[in-house]
Amino acid sequence: MSLKTAVTCGTNFGGGGLGQHLKLVVEDEERTNPGGVRCYCSNGNGDPRCIEVRDPSRLWHLIGKVARYSPGWRSFLGCDRFDETASHRLGKFDRVIGFVGQCDKIFSAARRHGSCYLVVHAANSHVDNVRNLHARARTLCPVEAPWLNGAQANKTRHEYSTTDEIVVASEYTRKTFLERGFKPEMLSRIWLLPDSRFTPLLEPLPRSTFNIVYVGAVTVAKGVPVLLNAFEQITNPEARLTLVGGYTSPGMRKFMTAKMAKDSRITLAPGDPLPHLMQADVCVHPSWEDGWAYAPAEALACGVPTIVTQDTGMKELINEGINGYVVPTGEWEPILERIRAIELKPLRGFKPPEYPVVVR
After folding, report:
1. What pLDDT is attached to residue 359?
2. CATH 3.40.50.2000 assigned to 210-344
């Protein structure tokens, strides 16, 4: 008899890092249970397995406008709205899978309906680890509040306590749960794979500049100010720093506008990262915390040497001095040192990482 599985996540199916994570989970479940999987998400992008969950109420629209100045409340309210709306649409399933911060009410509804097994995917490390690192980041650059506030942290902790299984995307994330007393048998692993379109060029494109690329949200928590501090020390007029992403707060917009006005070598380029990676000499991912991080995985898949921090799950794919470097979190000096090392001795021709099958 086929099991019925619901996968829930308030994002666009296949779009962005979280959307790619969601798609991989659905496809993984579909392989073991063909035809028995339904996905509740914000936008299904035409996938027949998806049920789109939206709340068009005027109240939520007004709350969203008020919360736009606070990344933390915007994130919490958006996740909680999806959680509430999806919980009312959920039927009876044998397994219900959610993502941290947005499945507490879904899990409660699943238990009421008689669902027997609950799984939560931890896209980030343990919430207390995230909170601690974000607090350090804001101390050094207090231009915006973090996306994770106290309300979201409390909701996430409750989800940990009600689930049967926690799925992590890196050994770094697993470690943060074990350090906080979670039993090893409660934790399982999924490998998040970059899209197949991210592949090395057969021949490097000609260029006259030294191109440093960052891909992701332009935020304090992602370490963008740390990268800017490092770049300020690079005097090479042919060096370029391209930030492929967008702002999430007025404070960061003001901060970045001032930085770009001061140094014309810095540009912001929202949109597809692939064209920029094709021109990159190095990709830097200076995040204060990431459970995995698709952006550096995509860079490595393109054959671009990558610098990541110790608090990024992606560090396990770095072969020091071969395809990149791992640097201390929150420190610009090691980033500068490694950028200069790659400028003097480019890391080229390495083989993109190979991924094992999904571990259950």
Report:
1. 40
2. yes
